[in-house]
Amino acid sequence: MSRGKFNVTVSLGSAGKRLGTLQEKARPAVRDAVNDTAKSARRRLDDKVKETYTIKKSGFDRAVKIRRATNRTLAAHITGISKRTPLSNFKHRKNTMGRGRYYVPVLRKTLTGSGGRGVMVKEKNSLPMKEIASPGGAKAFLLKVRAFKGRDSQGSYVQDEKKTKTGIFQRTKSGKIRQLYGASVSEMINDIDVYGTVRPHIEDDLKNNLDRHIRRRL
After folding, report:
1. pLDDT tens sequence across 74-112
2. Within its chain, how far is the Cα of 42 from the centroid?
3. 194-217 vs 26-49: helix axis angle to the nearest 10?
4. Fewest Cβ atoms nearer than 10 Å: which of 52, 122, 128, 185?
């Protein structure tokens, strides 16, 4: 296994024998059974990761993708991406207002200045809630901004005028705003025994799902 990836695979043979004269429907039955098994495996991974990390289910599902089985390829793949997870996807408390305010043109927002309390974050269940602040005193804050759409021909940042995202940000010494991130899902998954978590259940889940989808086609 690498980068939090594992495969769920099943052959057509056993399903074909059980379906008998409905051989042409065997592949859809196996396909659906494999995909249901992959979803169950992802749920178990999510539950296992949450024993250590406070990541939200929505954040986990966005980072752990299922490449679904098809009639042609009867295998599903679950992959944890290596990109770091936005800190806002972990358990947090928003910042409190401070003294002084300043306007940031690129964000089209007036932000809180010094004082107040920065965003509190708890990335792991074993750790206490901690205020996010730089050594220089810049406190993190929760902010909704325009989503990234791409870059223009000059390489400049282009905002999506319709979509927004909420993240935890912090002001740098130069006055720029940067978004803060935590561990990637791949790092979280590599901290646990993935096969020990999902493998004992894959065979039984696949058998039960296959039985269910075969009965639907009989």
Report:
1. 888 888 777 889 999 999 988 776 555 555 555 566 665
2. 11
3. 150
4. 128
* Cα(14)–Cα(176) distance, integer angstroms: 60
- d(C-alpha 181, C-alpha 140), whole Å: 12
Are 43 and 205 in contact, with CB atoms under 8 Å apart?
no
Side chain identity at 143, as an amino acid letter? L
Tokens of residue 185, six digits: 């899902």
SS3 of 75-143: the string is: EEEEEECCCEEEHHHCEEECCCCCCCEEEECCCCEEEECCCCCCCEEECECCCCCEECECCCCCECEEE
Based on DSSP, count helices (H) and strands (E) in the chain, helices before strands. Answer: 5, 13
Place of tokens 């086609």: 217
Cα 23–Cα 214–Cα 9 angle in degrees, nearest 5: 80
